[in-house]
Design a protein that fits this description.
With about 160 residues, the protein is mainly beta. About 10% of the residues lie in helices and about 45% in strands. A hairpin with a 2-residue loop joins strand 10 and strand 11 (about 145-155).
């Protein structure tokens, strides 16, 4: 999972004339509108590497995300997610998210009552295969020096 560290605009201005930050690009409103709504993760897979263990979003084993529920609100880039799988940690959290013009899904998991601007790190995944009823978020992780995809398959609930 590519973890990003968000910095204040002042720090960017002092150290760089130009930024290639994923948070500084234009939004892809079309993808954001396609993703809005209620979803469940139907599967998590790592093609060619089924024997690895992945800790997703520094919360739990990736397989615990199967069956998790997600709500994406596109007009304010907020939402929530909850783990619901038996024998996994109980976890629920508000989130903020957006899709930049490169098709990168930028996600912040928030603590209750916490403002997104106070959270200094988040996650960047790629949006793939978006239809009316499903889409994938694809993460790249390093396994033994080789980049491996972790694919989160989402199915629309409503």
């Amino acid at each position: 999972m590519k973890k990003i560290f968000l910095v204040t605009a002042i720090a960017l201005a002092l150290f760089s004339c130009k930024t290639s930050s994923v948070t500084a690009t234009k939004l892809d409103r079309g993808i954001q509108t396609g993703v809005k709504g209620n979803w469940v993760i139907s599967s998590v897979s790592y093609p060619g590497s089924e024997y690895i263990k992945v800790n997703s979003f520094q919360i739990a084993d990736s397989k615990c995300f199967e069956g998790s529920t997600w709500k994406f609100v596109s007009n304010n880039n907020k939402g929530n997610m909850a783990l619901t799988k038996y024998d996994c940690p109980v976890f629920s959290s508000p989130i903020t998210w957006f899709v930049n013009s490169n098709g990168e899904f930028v996600l912040k998991v928030l603590d209750a009552g916490e403002k997104a601007k106070k959270v200094r790190d988040g996650y960047v995944l790629h949006v793939a295969n978006l239809t009316d009823s499903s889409f994938q978020l694809v993460d790249k992780i390093n396994v033994g020096g080789k980049l491996t995809d972790v694919v989160y398959q989402f199915q629309r609930v409503n």
